[in-house]
Prior knowledge:
Chain A is of the alpha+beta class and 343 residues long.
Amino acid sequence: MEISCPKPYNEYDKIVLAHGSGGRLSNRLIHDIIISVLGETYIDSAHDGAVLDIPGKQAFTTDSFVVTPLFFPGGDIGYLAVNGTVNDLVCCGARPLYLSLSLIIEEGLLISELVSVISSVAKAARIAGIKIVTGDTKVVEKGKADKIFINTAGVGSIPEGRIISPHQCAEGDVIIITGTIADHGISILSTREGLSFDSPIRSDCTPMNEIAELIFSVTNDIHVMRDPTRGGVASALNEISHTSGKEIIINESDLPLNPLVKGACEIMGFDPLYLANEGKLLVFLPGKYAGRVLSAIRSHPYGRHARIIGKVTGDEPIVKMKTLVGSTRIVEMITGEQLPRIC
Amino acid sequence: MEISCPKPYNEYDKIVLAHGSGGRLSNRLIHDIIISVLGETYIDSAHDGAVLDIPGKQAFTTDSFVVTPLFFPGGDIGYLAVNGTVNDLVCCGARPLYLSLSLIIEEGLLISELVSVISSVAKAARIAGIKIVTGDTKVVEKGKADKIFINTAGVGSIPEGRIISPHQCAEGDVIIITGTIADHGISILSTREGLSFDSPIRSDCTPMNEIAELIFSVTNDIHVMRDPTRGGVASALNEISHTSGKEIIINESDLPLNPLVKGACEIMGFDPLYLANEGKLLVFLPGKYAGRVLSAIRSHPYGRHARIIGKVTGDEPIVKMKTLVGSTRIVEMITGEQLPRIC
């Protein structure tokens, strides 16, 4: 995407400490760059806070993003920061409505890079139909941050009748994943390592709100939704299993995997079960709805590769996998460091 | 404050990258340290988001905190992160209810320092009566952040009848400040420069929600409230003046100033009008309520030094000050860098 700097900035201009002083330069940065690039995705409150009017129950969530590199195939830190928080709201059963945007910028960041990132924030907000209503900008000295860190917090409304929580996980639940796993993790890692494949492996970074609404159009009787980000499907399933005290069994042969990602995992020695996804949902629901929900998910471009991958089988907090060779192994929670700064 | 590390951590233990991996070590950090130290100020949702039920209108705000040093007389980055967001909610006319807490930690941070910071978060949340309901923790490599950055986002409820906004600023409004100015700025700066005075200059870092409720107990007809943080009273007044298009005149002789802070400003060559406050409100209101509101504010320990400092005098976006020598000067918005990383 070709991004041009808003005047009077040019391609060599950089962020300086005074952009974070709270004075005139801060104001210019906020108005001439951030608000101007956000366009209609930003609602100005002329306040240090926004006034909302959400009837019923609200969902509230936050994430800080420190991904490196800032730009990767399929997205960048701005695109990720919006989608990550949108997807956390979705996993509460909410319709995402409002977002805060808080930037910690390292002195010396190119203003053109900032403009690129903010353009991606606007693009993601447009796609997810969410508005940015409040924010904050800080600048720290060179060497005291890594280019830019972004925090987004999100607020959404939860329609009546939706109770989505790991505590709802019940024996007999069928588990669906909305598409291929490990795409984001491999995209970041191969970019970072400078590995090249026939075609670049793209992150799956996308908003899941439309898929969620398709799911709820079938039934509100959904038990758990979780986006398997940092730590991957293995960590997400373990968290759900330990919170609910339920046994989960998945089938390795049912895990959707892009062949390129599979190949990259083999080359680099990574288990795709532990790699991050940024545009996938794990959905736990009563088996009687599974077929119709699966069809609904597959009707969406982001859900074409959705699969049933397992079910909830008992009252013990453990995650197991039937492997390709027919044995059963325990899927542990990741213990050490696999991939730092993946999101 | 003597803080001991929760077992099994000891005083030499440090944060490692794996604490941010989303796996078992992340879980331990979150449960054994963060949630355990937050105690009853934390409400667990077992989710990546919280479900709230706030009737009527909601206020929503965010701030990232990058203050250096982390610990200063009168507070630390954790205490500041809660109070800063509480006070932004207050300035929307809201009762602060829920907070998110997002940490970006540099590898190598002492776990004992993290525990100190989180203890202060809990202390501030207790005083302000706000609950932490969702959060996030990231770890970045040594040299890629500066010990710890904290983002808090806040949600509050706005009682009916309160419309607080810079757009409400009206000719004839009286302007009250709830206490002495520049305390936070001078506290940070003198700590940073290693200056010592007869007694240390303490930051005014405090939650303003009780004072706000005292103000609203007199009348809901309050026009503007603003906490003059980064950029100080001068920047806050300029923002209000430019948003509303109104002329503001303040009297230098009415500005409450701790004599120690005044002396430090003279020694270091700073204008207290531009220095940050973290426990003060500027209140714009119709003159007829000014006396009763001033008394209400002064009845609170944090409001003993409240003063009327000026008024709104016309339809031109400009801020002026009657100086001690009797002349009138324009109070400009700060242009360059005065104090980086003050909050």
